[in-house]
Amino acid sequence: MKALKYFSILILPIVVWISFTNKGWLTHLPAIIFFGFVPLLEFFIKPNTSNFSIEEEQEEKENKLYTYLLYLTLPIQIGFLIFFFYIIQEPLSNSELAGRIFAMGIMCGVIGINVGHELGHRNNRFDEFIGEILLLTSLNTHFLPYHNGGHHYNVATPEDAATARKNEILYFFWIRSHFSSYVEAWKLENKRMREENRSWFHYQNRMLIYTFCNILLLSFIFVFFGKFVLFCFIAAAVSGIIMLETVNYIEHYGLLRNKNEFGRYEKVKRNHSWNSNHQVGQVLLFNLSRHSDHHYNGSKHYQLLKSLPESPQMPTGYPGMMLLSLFPPLWFWVMNKRIKKFRFLEKK
C-alpha cells in the first residue's frame, strides 16, 4: 500500500527513545540521523516527481490509513513528552542534556508542529482539535489562526510575516516571523470576534483559550516536575519553533506575487513557494516539501499533493536546505541565483 511509506516517521520516536535511554554520543542520535544522515542520503536517491493518476488520486483520497497515521502521532507525542519530564532529571553532562533537549525539540517540530499543521487544515473539528493539542505540546498554538487566516492569504507578499525577503538573514527572520505572526493571530481572532458582535474576551476567541492552555500546561509542569524540567521543556519547544521558522524561511525565500493594474496581488499559484521532490524528507515530513501545491490548495490532504514543473525547485531536501540556511553568505550565493534564473524563465 502506498500509505505505508509514511510510517517511516516512526523512525523518529525510535531514535529519540535511544537518545532518552542512553548517554554519551547516543543522546545526539536524532540530530545525527535527521540533520546528518538524511541530507547525505538525499544526494544519492533520485527525486520523486511522479503524481497520482486521476483514478489513484480518488482511491488514495478515500484511504483512511493516511489520517489514522496522523492520529497515531498524538499518543506518541504526549507519551514522549511525559517520558522527557522524567529522563531529563537524570544526572547528565551538558552535552547529554543538550542532546536530549534537542531530541525532544525535533519531536516538537516534526510531530507537534508539522502534523498539527496538517490536521489544522482539515475541515472537521475533531482533526482540528488533535492538531491544537499537538501544537500545544510545542507551545505554538497561535500557529493555526495566523497560518490559516493570515499566511495562506498573504503568502509571497511583504505583508506576510512568514515570507522571507530576499537577502534577509535567517536569524533575524526567526524573530520577525514568530513574534509578528503571534501579534497577527491576536488581530485576526479579535477581528473575528468583532464581526460576530462579541467581546475579544470571549470563550470562542481561540487566542484567549490557547493562551490559557499554554499557561495551564506550563503551570502543571512547574508544580509537578519543578523549575529545571520547565526550563528544559521550554528549550525543547523553542527548538521545535526554530525548526518551524527555518522551514518557513526556506519555503518562501525571495518569492513575491505580482500586483495587477488595480494594485491587487495576483492569485496564489504554484510558483509562489519553493518545492522539493527529494524523497526522504518528503516522506518524513508528510509531503510538506510539496509546498507549492499546498499553497495552491491548502485543504488538499498531504498524500495528494503534486509536483508540477512550474514550481521553483530547491537543490536538495528540507533537512539539507535547513542546514544551508544557517550559513547566510552560502545560502544567498545558492538561492539568489535560483531566484534570478526562475524569474527569467517566468518572463519567457
Structure explained in plain terms:
It is a single chain. With 348 residues, the protein is mainly alpha-helical. The chain is built from 14 helices and no strands. The chain has helices at residues 11-21, 29-41, 54-61, 65-87, 94-120, 125-136, 143-154, 170-195, 206-225, 227-252, 279-284, 291-296, 318-325, 328-347. Helix 7 (143-154) crosses helix 8 (170-195).
Question: Main sheet?
Answer: none
Distance between the termini: 41 Å
Q: What's the order of the H and E elements?
A: HHHHHHHHHHHHHH
How many DSSP helices?
Answer: 14
Structural class comes to mainly alpha
Which bin fits the share of residues in helices?
A: 55-70%
**What is the rounded Rg?**
20 Å
Outline type: globular
Q: Oligomer, anyone?
A: single chain
Return residue spans where pLDDT drops below 50 for at least 5 consecutive residues.
Answer: none
Q: Count the beta strands.
A: 0
Proportion of residues in β-strands: under 5%
What's the rounded overall pLDDT mean?
Answer: 94
